[in-house]
From TrEMBL:
It comes from the Eukaryota. InterPro entries: Endo/exonu/phosph_ase_sf. This is Uncharacterized protein.
């Protein structure tokens, strides 16, 4: 795709490759890191006509990089073909632990507060922090149980709408009070089902974040991921010619090289920073320094915690705010 991928005399193909490069860029594909031969094709000629090119490569998208972040490929030596075989490696998929995430709609279910109160009454021996952590673990199990009993909220809305339609059809046909009461009951069930689904979807979609946050965050993180893949070092050659291929050996060689370059491993050597004083526009005073390490009061923690917008981009908080701050309680 550029001059670095050609060795030997070859015709200028930069113009003809413009569309291909544009296609790769527009589709968001990136090349996997590789080790081995830098060129994957040879024209089997000798002397001045000998020509090497990197024609073969592995391109992946963002889904692939997220699923197999450690994948790469080996450009092996050709055997019976004039093309080098490409061998895919590092396909050990990382199984991510699914973190518990509190759903705000649970606070709207009947009996929610009663279940919390019952668990919070448990007597647990230990420090206050240990007691709190144990009770939160019990609550986590209870919340999972409630979510499982509630089922799929979207399916619940569809079923409630079906029952409401049938009840309205019966009332329209027979016009009796009993069917009117049935319509009212089905309407209440349908309204609650829709309310819970909207709460769930609103939390999932992070509407407040999409409205006020970085609109290009997806592109931004995709660019970071692609850069990380490109800049990974899979192998390194030492001064004595030894080739290191394992991640541990490569890391240790980098550390050893810079330790020798910077004068050994004196980690506790005190560095005189006086020569930087004239470059600094502002230095931290003794008063400011003491404020940085000042103890935080419980009132400040509570104020900061309850200042968080419930519908803002949610972090994986150990104690979800909607669980603590239930409207009307």
């Amino acid at each position: 795709m550029d001059d670095s991928e050609v060795f030997g005399r070859a015709a200028d193909t930069s113009a003809s490759m413009t569309d291909f490069r544009t296609c790769i860029r527009d589709t968001g594909l990136v090349q996997l890191p590789f080790t081995g031969c830098p060129f994957t094709w040879h024209n089997c000629s000798e002397g001045p006509r000998s020509l090497w090119k990197r024609l073969d490569r592995m391109l992946v998208n963002t889904v692939w990089m997220a699923t197999w972040p450690d994948s790469s490929y080996i450009s092996a030596l050709p055997s019976t073909s004039d093309h080098s075989p490409l061998i895919l490696t590092g396909m050990n998929r990382i199984e991510e632990h699914v973190a518990f995430r509190f759903d705000n709609y649970l606070t709207q279910l009947p009996g929610f507060l009663n279940s919390v109160e019952e668990i919070w009454k448990h007597r647990i021996h230990g420090t206050a922090m240990y007691e709190t952590v144990c009770k939160l673990k019990l609550l986590k199990a209870e919340f999972r149980r409630q979510k499982k009993l509630k089922g799929n909220l979207t399916d619940n809305v569809k079923r409630a709408k079906t029952f409401l339609d049938k009840a309205q059809a019966l009332f329209t046909t027979y016009k009796e009070d009993i069917y009117l009461e049935l319509v009212k009951s089905c309407r209440r069930v349908y309204s609650m089902a829709v309310k819970l689904e909207i709460s769930m979807l609103k939390q999932r979609a992070k509407l407040r974040w999409l409205k006020h946050g970085d609109q290009s965050s997806k592109v931004f993180f995709r660019k970071i991921n692609a850069t990380r893949v490109k800049q990974r070092v899979f192998q390194i050659t030492k001064v004595d010619g030894e080739l290191l291929t394992t991640q541990q050996d490569v890391t240790q060689e980098f550390i050893s090289y810079f330790q020798n370059l910077l004068g050994g491993s004196s980690l506790h050597r005190r560095i005189d920073l006086d020569f930087l004083q004239h470059e600094l526009k502002h230095t931290v005073t003794e008063t400011e320094s003491s404020l940085l390490v000042a103890p935080v009061t419980m009132a400040e923690v509570k104020e900061a915690f309850f200042d968080i917008d419930v519908e803002s981009a949610p972090a994986r908080m150990a104690i979800p705010r909607p669980f603590i701050e239930v409207p009307g309680q």
